[in-house]
């Protein structure tokens, strides 16, 4: 297991820019109502830059959608809505056109891909290159498969043209440099964090209301499922089946963002349809509601097959929830010694970790305290400081 790291060393104060920069940030999906990992990272980055940088001028390029209130314009932060068709057309044609019209000095694309001919210096956040790896993830939805095909086409072509490539863990940095020749020394790690709302909640009325709203059981394991195969639903269900067969399954599994029909199909494939009674499906839960569910959970389960970072690990730790996660890819780097690490391809190790925590209040308390200490090493404000430094360094060369 990799040694736990200290993610952040505070950045030195950035030198005042020699001129006011015009910085473009691509945040195409920021206004969509159902946000996921990369959307949350872009939102936290922009919010913290708003608080940190009053000198430069920003243009946030988004696609129109219903969640307008998630980000407010300020004196030096302009929200530019760019209507358009499918993602490749929006990114390759409409985004660079809007960026040129705004006369930005550089464009930061935040979600793995970027226009091949932007017409200005380009910074790319390359969260991961999972779609370039041989791991069989073909069981995902058609939308996920189409997105991966576009990334496989775009990323190897656009990375050589980027002034700077940012990624979110040392593990992913090594993977990128290994897979994409010519990137060694050009990829910089800027860690993610967890939002300030992910903390212990002591309001019993708020917790009781959430428990009633989502029909949560008294004791439950929290699992952020979706149809992406890397989330390892099959391994989780196999682990639960092991515990149920042993008569040791004391907690229900609460799953988010997973359709009933897809769950039943997996259970039938695993020949474990009786597990359905031990699973509570909650649908999509808004990000602002997640801290309530973390606080109510007895265990947070995150045994992914592959992650570039793993923000939910820190979200659970901030809420004082003991974490079980994987001993692969970036997850030991993020969790350090503050979680139980399991082999995600071996369901019996997941089952053993669940059994250990559900039977030991003392072990749950120990991990909860370690998690509360671990999460303090990460900061969205420090993320924003490091990204701002990159903007200024890139602009200084042009």
Automatic annotation (TrEMBL):
Glycosyl transferase family domain ranges (all copies): 216-369
Keyword check for Methyltransferase: no
Keyword Oxidoreductase applies: no
Keywords: Transferase
Record InterPro entries: Glyco_trans_1, Glyco_trans_4-like_N
Domain Glycosyltransferase subfamily 4-like N-terminal: from-to ranges: 37-192
Transmembrane segments: none
The protein's name: Glycosyltransferase family 1 protein
Organism annotation: Hymenobacter glaciei
Taxon lineage: Bacteria, Pseudomonadati, Bacteroidota, Cytophagia, Cytophagales
């Amino acid at each position: 297991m990799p040694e736990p790291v200290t993610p952040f060393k505070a950045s030195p104060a950035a030198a005042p820019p020699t001129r006011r920069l015009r910085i473009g940030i691509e945040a195409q999906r920021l206004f969509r109502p159902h946000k996921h990992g990369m959307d949350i990272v872009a939102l936290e980055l922009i919010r913290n830059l708003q608080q940190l940088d009053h000198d430069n001028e920003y243009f946030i390029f988004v696609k129109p959608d219903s969640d307008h209130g998630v980000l407010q314009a300020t004196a030096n932060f302009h929200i530019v809505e760019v209507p358009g068709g499918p993602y490749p057309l929006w990114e390759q044609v409409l985004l660079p056109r809007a960026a040129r019209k705004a006369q930005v000095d550089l464009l930061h694309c935040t979600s793995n891909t970027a226009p091949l001919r932007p017409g200005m210096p380009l910074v790319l956040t390359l969260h991961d290159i999972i779609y370039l790896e041989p791991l069989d993830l073909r069981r995902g939805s058609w939308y996920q498969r189409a997105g991966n095909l576009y990334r496989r086409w775009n990323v190897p072509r656009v990375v050589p043209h980027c002034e700077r490539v940012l990624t979110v863990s040392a593990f992913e940095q090594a993977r990128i440099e290994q897979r994409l020749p010519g990137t060694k020394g050009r990829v910089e790690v800027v860690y993610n964090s967890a939002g300030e709302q992910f903390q212990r909640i002591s309001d019993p009325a708020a917790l009781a209301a959430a428990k009633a709203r989502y029909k949560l059981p008294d004791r439950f394991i929290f699992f952020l499922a979706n149809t992406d195969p890397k989330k390892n639903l099959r391994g989780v269900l196999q682990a639960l089946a092991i515990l149920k067969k042993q008569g040791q399954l004391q907690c229900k599994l609460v799953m988010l963002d997973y359709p009933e029909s897809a769950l039943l199909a997996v259970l039938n494939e695993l020949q474990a349809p009786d597990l359905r009674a031990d699973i509570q499906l909650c649908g999509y839960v808004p990000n602002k509601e997640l801290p309530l569910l973390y606080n109510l959970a007895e265990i947070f389960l995150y045994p992914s097959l592959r992650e570039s970072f793993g923000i939910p690990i820190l979200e659970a730790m901030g809420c004082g929830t003991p974490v079980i996660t994987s001993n692969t890819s970036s997850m030991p780097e993020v969790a350090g010694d503050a979680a139980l690490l399991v082999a995600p391809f071996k369901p019996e190790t997941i089952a053993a970790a669940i059994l250990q925590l559900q039977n030991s209040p003392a072990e749950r308390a120990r991990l909860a305290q370690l998690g509360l200490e671990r999460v303090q090493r990460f900061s969205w404000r420090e993320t924003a400081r490091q990204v701002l430094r990159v903007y200024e360094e890139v602009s200084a060369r042009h």
